[in-house]
Amino acid sequence: HGAVKAEDTFKTSPFHLDLWFYFTLQNWVLDFGRPIAMIILPLEWFPLNKPSAGDYFHMAYNVITPFLLLKLIERSPKTLPRSMVYVSIITFVMGASIHLVGDSVNHRLIFSGYQHHLSVRENPIIRNLKPETLIDSFELLYYYDEYLGHSMWYIPFFLILFIYFTGCFTAVAEQSRMPLAALLLVGPSSLYYWYLVTEGQIFILYIFTFFAMMALVMHQRRKGLVLDSNGLFLFYSFIITLLLIALWVGWLWNDKTLRKKYPGVIYIPEPWAFYTLHMSTLH
């Protein structure tokens, strides 16, 4: 499985500006931009019985993202567990493809009056369907979109990032600093991870990944190793993401409608649920 070699310990790599820039850019355009493109582009260009512009964005994302993740792994100065990486990439593509279908239908339902801040059975266009077994079909579609698709998409995504993070340590203290380019990118990167965690409802997965990163940093520090520029970029992105999530939750803490949709102990509303509740009428 590609155990770390002894001679890898003191290898380092420069900041991967090209990969991190492309990674951040395509995340914003192809993932965050998907539903926006679907809403703002004329419906006549993309009929409801055909893929939307957002679907084509998703297709591109499903190809480009695993490619960039593999390139990140290739750039690592350490020998990483390749078999785990390959299985994770395969699972990632499968999960993102499942999500593509479910998300496509769910977002197209907006044009028919579907409201994302309500559950499937509470939606006005769904609750009166006959026969009632049709409602079960829509709930199955929602399950594939929000649960199975997200799990098979995001678990390998964060696992790959963590595997890459394990190779971002150096014994040279001078290399543990972020260049200006990294400082400029860390804001957009953190803001995207905020969107990913809140919209994907994957806070538990994110926080466990973050805790694992913190534990690894403390463990490696005892060995005299510190994070290199790539590791610092990823670590600081996750720290700022946590602060953004806290601000988001604090802002919507007393929203009774969203509280009803997210009744659990962990209350983290989805941005698109907020949009359909408070801003879609303005749009």
UniProtKB/TrEMBL annotation:
The keyword Membrane applies. It holds the Pfam family CLN6. GO terms for cellular component: endoplasmic reticulum; membrane. Keywords: Membrane, Transmembrane, Transmembrane helix. InterPro entries: CLN6. One of its GO terms (biological process) is lysosome organization. It comes from the Eukaryota. The keyword Magnesium does not apply. The chain crosses the membrane at residues 56-73, 85-102, 153-173, 180-196, 202-219, 231-253. PANTHER family: CEROID-LIPOFUSCINOSIS NEURONAL PROTEIN 6. This is CLN6 transmembrane ER protein. The lineage of its organism: Eukaryota, Metazoa, Chordata, Craniata, Vertebrata.
